[in-house]
Amino acid sequence: MKNVKKHAQDSENRKQQDLKVNKSDATDQMMTTDQGLKINDDTNSLKAGERGPSLLEDFILREKITHFDHERIPERIVHARGSAAHGYFQVYESMEKYTKAGFLQDPGLKTPVFTRFSTVAGSRGSTDLARDIRGFAVKFYTEQGNYDLVGNNVPVFFIQDAIKFPDLIHAVKPEPNNEMPQAASAHDTFWDFISLMPETMHTIMWVMSDRAIPRSLRMMEGFGVHTFRFINAKNESHFVKFHWKPKLGTHAVVWDEAQKISGKNSDFHRQDLWEAIENGNFPEWELGVQIIPEADEHKFEFDLLDPTKIVPEELVPVTIIGKMVLNRNPDNFFAETEQVAFHPGHIVPGIDFTNDPLLQGRLFSYTDTQLSRLGSPNFHEIPINRTIAPMFNNQRDGHMRQEINVGRGSYHPNSLGGGCPFQAKIDEGGFTSFNERIDAHKVRDRSESFSDHFSQATLFFNSQTQVEKNHIIKALRFELGKLETIAIKTRMLGLLSQIDKTLADKVAQGLGLKVPSSPEKPINHGVGANADKQKYEPKKVTQSVKSSDALSMIKNKTLSKTIATRQVAFLCSEGVHQASINAMKTALEKAGATAKVIAPHLGTIKTSEGNELAVDQSFLIAASVLFDAVYIPGGKNAGFLNSNAEAIEFINEAYKHCKVIGADEFEILAKTHIYDKEDKNEEEGIIINSKTNDKNFTKEFIDAMGNHRFWNREAEL
Ligand code: HDE
């Protein structure tokens, strides 16, 4: 056991050391040029006379500006905006029965990971809260080589074949004539494409749900999307679907909040992840797998190779096999988060691909894109991309080669180098592909088993609570409502009516349009070369699972009641009652939440007890959308809060977004919407101290926070 621990520690240390090469946080270093020449003056350029022209000879100036001129590299074509963290992965029990993957054998082994979360459509400088899928890419630095699980926070994808990916991305990116809109799908080109591609319908349901506007990167699920294979030492294969389940549960904000957060703090997610890790609140996910025996490949009413389908958890349960903890922020955004290069083709013995045509296309794309983004085939030598496994081969040279290969041999077979590097036998860890039999005609076509585009979209919609359905309807009303072209809206209504009639009717109502009585048939779009034969006809296959709780964030069993790391705004002003603040703050901190004092100005304010209270944020900086709950302590501040428009707006917004509001006295809320309501004293999620007996107040507030939102405040659609 001691050895196992040491081994685990070694592999973590090795990666840490690897990444610290050239770390530039020294405190005792003199400034030099890139050639190591000590610099005496970095403030003035070399000139002919004090007021004279700068001299071309000034190599220090030229070197500095030339390097600066080349600081930027192309941003990722998709997933440009990201944030990442280091951590480790640990399996709970050996998975030997299913896979020989080294990092899944030994519960004592901590495999270092680097995980990058991203939005898909926006540029590097766009907002975190865009309605979008989130990338969830994990690089495992295993002893057998790097394994990348490059997934998303949604378990399905828009398209079935990689050949449509450039079209999808062209459609969703800002329109080419005016480069608008940024990081948004609510525009004509996106919905034009979607409305002509029925296979996108299932993913559209997920993207229109609140899954596309997470509360935090720490509170979203992750999925491998494609079906992969586990291969064991006996070379037996099982199909596998990967799931990441967040320990804090899966949570979202609402669309109105998302849009406002984008203005108030476009780094909301990025900052939340960074601060959680800095404060020692290390985010954690469990890795789950759905394992399907090879013999069951054709037993489902959908095709396992189709990336627009899930395997409902009711048919194949998710088995939790390990955990990932993110415990260290990057030292340098560019060197690590920007230069990390993921690739679904980075696999290790024990894991293999299937013939999912989307996955197959990805296997080519990622290396190709790194070549233009990172500028060299040697991107694997960048510290964040280096493997901790010994790396040795006959690849040589190229732009920015770091390694100085010694010796004459750079070919195989050789005798001059004694035959080195040697090929590894399978029992020495040599990789071999799963020996799948393939016997087929060469065709540009798609399997009939891929032609059901609606039934899982219906399954997703049916699995939601009424509140979640309303949010999907409102999202569609928003997105389609922004389109200029009526024909696209109508075509979309036709597609929605094939998912659910009420859904289509409700969206149509918001758009002021009618659902077409017979939906437009897709003409030769997304149908492959056999389009001319009109062979393809989308169909709906009856699903054995009618509703799945795992698909709803509200019903989901992983929804956690914990309020750990949640942020509570305390609205205060001069004369606030300090004893109330102390009691609530202590109770919240005990539950793992954070209290922030918001007041008219920064610095300190005087409490009713005569003490100075430190202010965290002024009303000018803070906003309800940046917090999970609000508390208004009593004292002499009621007068001020009732006359301050910002404080009133703060409380009204918290109410609108269905958040918990606590106050020492009901009168403090006199100028808010809450006070005007008929059932004002009975509302759920409004906790008033004077009505509870003192002891229960903080408990009731914290219990209410555990419910997260009080959706009954939302209007019926
Ligand atoms: Fe990607 N994708 N993708 N993708 N993808 C990229 O690679 C691509 C797809 C995903 O944090 C690019 O290094 C194709 C599905 C993530 O660095 C590029 C297709 C899933 C990230 C690329 C897909 C993903 C990327 C751009 C259709 C979920 C960010 C920059 C066949 C399973 C990784 C880069 C990071 C990034 C291609 C579809 C996940 C261009 C051709 C499905 C999380 O290579």
UniProtKB/TrEMBL annotation:
Protein residues bound to heme: R76, R116, F165, R362, Y366, R373
Disordered, as annotated region: 1-50, 518-539
SUPFAM superfamilies: Class I glutamine amidotransferase-like (SSF52317), Heme-dependent catalase-like (SSF56634)
GO molecular function, one term: heme binding
Keywords: Heme, Hydrogen peroxide, Iron, Metal-binding, Oxidoreductase, Peroxidase
Cofactor: heme
Similarity field: Belongs to the catalase family. HPII subfamily.
Protein's name according to its UniProt entry: Catalase
Lineage per the UniProt record: Bacteria, Pseudomonadati, Bacteroidota, Flavobacteriia, Flavobacteriales
